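Example record used in the benchmark description.
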Amino acid sequence: MMAQLLNFAQSQIAQFLRQNLPSLDRQQISQQIFPYREPIKHLLIGSPKAVTSTIHYLQVIGYASVGDWSPLQPTGNPDEVMSILSRQILIQ
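Model output (structure tokens):
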């Protein structure tokens, strides 16, 4: 849901800029608004309880919503699962 809100906000800003600065193309607008964004992936591996607990903790501190993580997947090791989160972060 957070990613959808971010995409919506980005599209609204880009639309506003296109209407008010028509000489800029979409790529130039995107680069000017978010010039230092880079993808990053977080991978949690552990017992189902440890992974779920960490996912909930990261939501409590405001880093990522529970729904942003992939469903728990078995790793092939007994009592071990993994979950992944993909995000775009600002690089300074």
